[in-house]
Design a protein that fits this description.
The chain is built from eight helices and ten strands. With 231 residues, it is α/β, with parallel strands linked by helices. α4 packs antiparallel against α5.
């Protein structure tokens, strides 16, 4: 579904990601972990087309999108939920969702309802301004909004960071449900236990390079923590 090969990307003349390669198959959760500043967000921003690539390639569902604009990648099935529970704060939760649904034709309404089924707590908050929602509720809203475009693969950047514990479990369960339904997920996550338990594979980034990789599974947690401690 997503193939990144030898990717180099940065800001100006300074590369932040150095030759990273990874793959995400259909219906897989693939986790990317690492300390702050390791290049995780830069990697995602390059994958979605928000940063230019200086070397390497990005293929989406078999098509080379290395130089494609973000809207082209969205049409091919890519969705991106950036870090920070982003929403249009002055609009209601319903209006945040409707902005996307209106551009999806007849499918928009059904996808909006499916997204609300995934996060049922949002149904009681649809008339509330998004800026008045809690961080966890805004994160659920951001993921729900991204789902309305009908993605085949979703890039999630720290979806549980700064979220109240009562909502973290709901978001984690939703990510697992999405993968079980066939959606591919590239997950940047600091919660190592969940990331490994949910993922088919993991990659650890250190200073913009893959320092460790392997199969997912809770049994590998000690090895990942050791790799991050050494980095």
């Amino acid at each position: 579904m997503l193939e990144i090969d030898g990717l180099k990307v940065g800001y100006g003349r300074t590369d932040v990601v150095h030759g990273v390669s990874l793959t995400v198959g259909a219906g897989e959760i693939v986790a990317v972990m690492g300390h702050n500043g390791a290049g995780k967000t830069t990697l995602l921003r390059a994958a979605v087309g928000l940063l230019p690539v200086s070397a390497g390639s990005i293929r989406l569902n078999g098509e080379d999108v290395t130089r494609a604009r973000p809207h082209r990648r969205v049409r091919l099935g890519l969705a991106y939920v950036p870090q920070g529970q982003q929403s249009f704060g002055q609009l209601s939760a319903r209006e945040n969702l409707q902005l996307v649904a209106d551009g999806q034709g007849a499918a928009g309404v059904s996808r909006m309802n499916e997204a609300l089924d995934l996060f049922p707590a949002l149904r009681g908050l649809l008339t509330r301004r998004a800026g008045l929602l809690s961080g966890g509720q805004r994160q659920q809203l951001a993921i729900a909004r991204a789902l309305i475009v009908g993605p085949k693969i979703m890039l999630l950047d720290e979806p549980t960071e700064g979220i109240q514990p009562s909502v973290v479990g709901e978001i984690e369960d939703a990510i697992v449900q999405l993968a079980a339904s066939g959606l591919s997920v590239l997950l940047v996550e600091q919660h190592i236990g969940f990331a490994l338990e949910a993922s088919a594979r993991y990659y650890v980034l250190e200073s913009g390079r893959v320092s460790a990789e392997g199969a997912g599974g809770a049994a590998n947690e000690s090895g990942v923590r050791a790799a991050m401690a050494l980095g």
